[in-house]
Write a structure and sequence with these properties.
Length: 449
């Protein structure tokens, strides 16, 4: 077993610390001794328990201490056996699904987003005993956006489980956004039986070339055949992302101030509305969709904390991002207020995911900028001397939607003072105390927005 992992680890350029457990009754592994063996290139602590008549074991405290060392140095911890270290029968074989979940848990993945299906049963067998929270969205696209929001708010990779076929194709919009914005995301998909792939036999959820499709919207797409294939791929796929430098703060503020002075009144007001959220809820995470106040704020707004302002209004530019991404952000950092800004048009792409927030008791503030259509596109058409077509769809009654989802609802006027008052209101305080989401609607007459 050690030789197998030494070989696959060498292929990734990573290093291991091997810890042999001797058979003497008075032998005790000391975490401090393991820590002394760790070097800058170490990626894995491998607990090697040889088969022997005396049955060397690890105590629960040993596992806790060694696990703390692994976490401190951001290393993988690979035991020969999980929770059966004293088993004299040797190392039990483990399924791909269970091995994958164990590795994710060891690596610090605490939340996965997914919709179970007949092809992913083995993954869920592994989740049953893992310390990983499973969140069920209403659509795989929502799972992807939740993983994206989780990654942006936490700085750790977001993870999603999907079934083969439609599960994969449903999540591709979300992975396209993550790829465009360099967001770390791990998507684990099932696949049909190996001997049926590419033969067009009409199996349930069959795709002609699932891996080929995924290679277009992922940095890597790999097919795992056995449990031993998993570790080197995860080490590469979940490697820390290097931080890049940023533009000078003073220069950025100077340029923004000059540009802000030239803003049309409508854009200036929308930036002020976003600033009101920031100032009323300091330290919050604001997640935006492709909607007019977010477009304006992306150009002229400054947030007050890292990882606290992100949206889908750039790059791939998906609609429907904000609702599920805000859910992921709230799970990643439950101690911070989370506000979702979405237009009425974008909200309808992923509206059912609001119920996921209700199920998971997440106090997300869903702020809906209702300008009764795709107003940004209608303006672009008018500017190009094109009569707006297809932009004036009627939104649902969001008060009825909130009631159906069991959420408080507040209608807010399109003014800075009313928004500030709403965010400070007792309704918002009680929703935060009860760990439940709330809907705030700002209605903007179509002709005035």
């Amino acid at each position: 077993m050690y030789a197998t992992y030494a070989s696959v680890m060498a292929s990734t350029g990573a290093k291991m610390v091997r810890v042999p457990l001797l058979a003497a009754d008075n032998f005790r592994i000391q975490a401090a001794d393991i820590e002394k063996k760790i070097t800058a290139g170490t990626s894995l602590i491998f607990l090697n328990t040889p088969h022997n008549p005396t049955g060397a074991v690890l105590t629960e405290q040993d596992i806790t201490d060694i696990g703390a060392v692994a976490k401190k140095h951001d290393l993988w911890l690979l035991p020969m056996q999980k929770k059966t270290m004293g088993n004299r029968q040797g190392h039990n074989r483990i399924s791909v699904g269970k091995a994958l979940v164990q590795y994710l848990e060891n690596r610090g993945i605490s939340v996965v987003f997914g919709i179970p299906g007949v092809h992913t049963l083995a993954l869920y067998r592994g989740l049953e005993q893992a310390a990983i929270r499973h969140v069920t969205p209403r659509h795989e696209q929502g799972a992807g956006f939740m993983a994206d929001g989780y990654a942006r708010a936490s700085g750790k990779p977001g993870a999603a489980f999907v079934i083969t076929g439609p599960g994969v194709t449903n999540i591709l919009t979300a992975t396209g956004q993550a790829l465009a914005d360099s967001i770390p995301m791990l998507v684990v998909s099932s696949v049909n039986a190996a001997d049926s792939l590419g033969k067009g036999l009409g199996h349930l959820h069959e795709l002609p070339d699932q891996q080929g499709i995924c290679k277009k919207l992922f940095l890597r797409s790999e097919h795992i055949h056995t449990a031993r294939d998993i570790l080197p791929l995860l080490i590469q796929g979940l490697a820390p992302v290097a931080e890049t430098g940023t533009w000078g703060e003073h220069t950025a503020k100077t340029v923004c101030s000059k540009a802000r002075a030239e803003l049309p009144p409508g854009y200036g007001h929308m930036v002020e509305m976003v600033e009101t959220i920031r100032d009323t809820m300091p330290g919050s995470i604001i997640v935006g969709d492709s909607t007019q106040p977010v477009y304006a704020a992306n150009l002229y707004y400054g947030h007050d904390n890292p990882r606290g302002w992100f949206n889908a209004a750039t790059g791939f530019g998906t609609l429907g991002y904000a609702i599920p991404a805000a859910i992921g952000a709230c799970l990643a950092d439950p101690g911070r207020p989370v506000v979702c800004i979405t237009g009425d048009g974008g909200a309808q792409f992923t509206l059912p995911e609001m119920m996921t927030a209700r199920d998971e008791s997440l106090p997300v503030v869903f702020l809906i900028w209702n300008n009764f259509g795709f107003k940004e596109i209608a303006d672009a058409m008018a500017d190009a001397d094109i009569t707006p077509i297809g932009c004036c769809q009627r939104p649902p009654d969001f008060q009825d939607i909130a009631r159906a989802y069991g959420m408080p609802y507040v209608k807010c006027h399109n003014t800075v003072s009313d928004l500030a008052g709403t965010l400070k209101s007792g309704t918002l305080k009680s929703h935060a105390d009860s760990q439940q989401p709330v809907v705030i609607e700002i209605q903007i007459p179509y002709r005035d927005s």
